[in-house]
Amino acid sequence: MNKTIGILAHVDAGKTTFSEQLLYHTKSIKTRGRVDHQNAYLDSHEIEKQRGITVFADQGMFQYEDCTYYLIDTPGHVDFSPEMERAIQVMDFAIVIVSAVEGIEGHTETVWNLLKKHNIPTFFFINKTDRTGANVEMVLDEIRSQLTENMIDLSEGFSDEKMTEELIEFIAERDEELLSYYIENGYDSKLWLLKMKEMIKSSKIYPCSRGSALQDIGVKEFLEKFHLLTVTNYSTSEPFGGRVYKIRYDEAGTRVTYIKALCGTLKVRDDLVYGNGDIEKVTQIRKYNGKQFQQVNQATAGELIAVVGLSNAVVGDGVGVLKEASMYEMVPALKSKVVFEPGVNAKEALRYFRILEAEDPSLNVTWVERLQEIQLHVMGTIQLEVLEQMVLERFSLKIHFEQPEILYKETIENEVVGYGHFEPLRHYAEVHLKLTPGERNSGIVFESTCHTDNLSVGLQNLVGQHVLEREHHGLLTGSQVTDIKVTLLTGRDHNKHTHGGDFREATYRALRQGLEKASNILLEPFYKFKIKVDLDQMGRVLSDIQAANGRFEAPETEGDKAIITGFAPVATFMDYSTVLASFTHGKGRISLTFGGYHRCHNEEEVIERIGYDKNADPEYTSSSIFCAKGQGFTVKWDEAEAMMHCL
User: Fold this and answer.
1) What is the DSSP string of 499-568?
2) Sign of the torsion formed by the C-alpha atoms of 124, 130, 132 and 138
3) How many domains does the chain have?
4) Owning domain of residue 354
5) What CA–CA distances, in Å, run from 632 to 233, 628, 641?
6) Structure pTM?
7) What range(s) does the Tr-type G domain occupy (predicted)?
8) Does residue 329 lie in a domain region?
9) 3-state SS track over 228-270
10) pLDDT digits 0-9 by tens, 303-362
């Protein structure tokens, strides 16, 4: 049986040490490394050793009794959350490590919410019980009150043959049939164990154990219980299907695509379909354990594999019979510019950043032609420091980044119709697009109501492709346009003169002309926050939130603590965790998660500061081109509508 398990936690809770113990006890490694000694098996990158944190979601393998386990040690720092989320989507089970000293911390709640979103069965391990200040009962209460009431402590009185009375009743209360059986017939160990496995797999209950990973207390016992209570069912009789969860380039420069095999069997030399219908031959199949890998001739459902031969696959792609791509919630709210030393050709260096973008799609690397510079999206300053070091180590290129800025977006408030016409000599395309305000954080949505008498289905699809193929610039700051439903109303081509690229030109002009007519607004990223402080500190927090242009729900009380939830702009709230720690002397808790984009609180100030000139953007124009007497001529956006051919 194949099981993929992920180890997750807030930074410094002991994930990597716990993972090392699992690998050691199952004889996958001969010696146990330590993060503080810079010899942890899974923190094999030099950057991880130097910083003492996990940056990359690396994996190990071990055998335990009749099962093969694939173990993923994920980053715990918020700056590397996208890497953690990509790993979550291929886990069969998750193990959340919580420190017995610090308890539930901000990032722990982020991890928990992602696990719930993706419906990943979860175990808890309360770590560092040997440390001064450890309070296991407090942590158990925090898990029940802040995460789930369906957590059950398995530290004592549990095996495959017996359960405590408390556990027997806990299981029975969550299954009507079992409760009826219990009332009539009493306890049956085999039936209870079977039901417990089902409830864990369906995320109805969450087992919890305790111990010390560093002192090797309770880890082996946890593994025994985990093995007993988990089961997977993968089918090898179907055609092959899987999910891409990671891209890496190995030391030889070979592009390696990591896949979770979800059904069927894959063999070397098989053709594999992925993405938008690309088909390529698999030339190698690898099984990684740390940095080492073994080449195999085939892989079956339930395994984590890495293949060579797929040149265009991206993280999240379905492969084989699985077509749907994954969607990710952890997205950067900041952007930064790459600064090179004198003499470096930025455009030539762009290929290095394309490699990094393939490995981490959230970077969203952009080449800004008019400025001749590279920009990328980031989660925070620690990520930028790591990227500087990575670029130097891997590509021998010394760089630094400018101070990160807020990543703004733009949208419209009213419905308009945009018209685009592109007709220089021997070219022809016309497009009419209706732009409708969409739901907030819905992105760009395309549909067509155009009749096939006006444009063929193929050309209608081409217009849709051009609408969705890139981020379009808004008029206020040149930021990405979002939250708009784009409807193709009609269009026209020419049998002789329409060529490749004509409909791209007409589509972009129609979008831009529509934006010129619309009421445009600026959006900024918001945090969704949850803050827990002493009651006498609540007033200070509420005042700070209002000063930061945030909004909050009615505070809740929990004993002598106040719990405050709400939304606040990233621009004004990104450093608040430091402020909170200062006036609460480190006792205040804050959880910040991306809360989507909403109306910018200081729109005029931002527009003036950015100073975008909508008429000087080399990539976009709202004017159309018409042809008369064998010559093309430009017509401004506010005059073009009257000259459209389809009206």
Assistant:
1) -TTHHHHHHHHHHHHHHHHS-EEEEEEEEEEEEEEEGGGHHHHHHHHHHTT-EEPPPEEETTEEEEEEEE
2) positive
3) 5
4) 334-407
5) 64, 6, 17
6) 0.85
7) 1-234
8) no
9) HHCCCCCCCCCCCEEEEEEEEECCCCCEEEEEEEEECEEECCC
10) 999 999 999 999 999 999 988 888 888 889 999 999 998 888 888 899 999 999 999 999
